[in-house]
């Protein structure tokens, strides 16, 4: 999957020449397939024909869609399923936007209703086929290089026996085959399933059961192939501890290294970061009330309605962000949500990237412009969080989602509920109060949440956005602090400790 990267490191999306070629030619080919007469240019003296207008509009709609879905970012010779999804998304967006625009403008008069479908098929096929051709060409080129490199490959390769015939093992074999110069070779695979014996995984034969390990290693030695290491796939779960222990002992007797693939490839973490276990075995006082089930339904309807109602403001805010800080216009951060589950929180960007194109740090006082300050003051930057509400990461009203280092010392109670776009703590102190005071306000809200309280918070939020500026309500703050102290519950809270990597058998026994 495509990973999010920080704004200053994301770069700008580009357009590949072949993608531009298909954006221009796909509507022409679609019209020609439907009826070649639509491309007759004799009527140009009477104005632009509907077919020519269709070509123009689809090209105009295709270019932004390609940039938004970043279909030209991937390398064609490494074309993957994720890239195919991006291409399909760009094609669907192009067809939908061009059809909608033309329907509003001309009701698609003069263009057959089947043309958008043909156009989508042609555009999608063209984008995918040229990537498939590039991938096949480079695969043949790499195969030719591999044959030449095989002659220079040293004969004292490290010989590996793999245990477990699964996707992880197959990818490991392919990875080793692409190493230049090659140092490691998988000579055989073992698996606990009888039905797989005699079959092959990524070109490597599955020669026997795991219980046959000792006999297989000895037989390979008779034929002059000395096994150096035994790798266990991380996905293997059907092996018993006794079988694993027996294989480990047999490897020890022969001086063979026995390890997991992830450890052999240095994919296992060397240190586990200290992190809190947000789950709790608390009593009823630590559980959400029944109102939160109704609250979720209300907020789904409300978030959808707000997205439609705020569409004009959303477009204005997006345009202001684009001319102020440039693309991308969406900013993201990973936050901690309900029960400690991490999610990506989205906002409109209001700050310039912390580093310029030369990698030099930009002073903090220069990153926020007047436009960005106005967007933040009006809370327009938080409109994209309505999407977080719809997909279930957030609520309209609840504790604000905080970064890990901003969490209070024991955040379990405030993490019982979904985080909110606005909330009780935000209205009664916001960034002015301490983390402990904010925690008390959030806990008070969770245990006193009701429809009328949520309505009050919504109204106060709109008034707050109009008035601007944060202020502390001492009476409400003291009430929340006193309530939390009087209703505190003592529950188990586990803190993970840093530790060194485990041995294979220790990790198996602990899991």
UniProtKB/TrEMBL annotation:
Entry-linked Pfam families: Bac_transf (PF02397), CoA_binding_3 (PF13727)
InterPro entries with a match to the protein in the record: Bact_transf
An annotated Gene Ontology molecular function: phosphotransferase activity, for other substituted phosphate groups
Domain Bacterial sugar transferase: 295-465
Any one GO biological process: polysaccharide biosynthetic process
Entry superkingdom: Bacteria
Keywords attached to this entry: Exopolysaccharide synthesis, Membrane, Transferase, Transmembrane, Transmembrane helix
Bilayer-spanning residue ranges: 12-32, 52-72, 84-105, 117-138, 297-322
Family: Belongs to the bacterial sugar transferase family.
PANTHER family to which the protein is assigned, alphabetical: COLANIC BIOSYNTHESIS UDP-GLUCOSE LIPID CARRIER TRANSFERASE (PTHR30576), UNDECAPRENYL-PHOSPHATE GALACTOSE PHOSPHOTRANSFERASE (PTHR30576:SF8)
Designated name of the protein: Sugar transferase
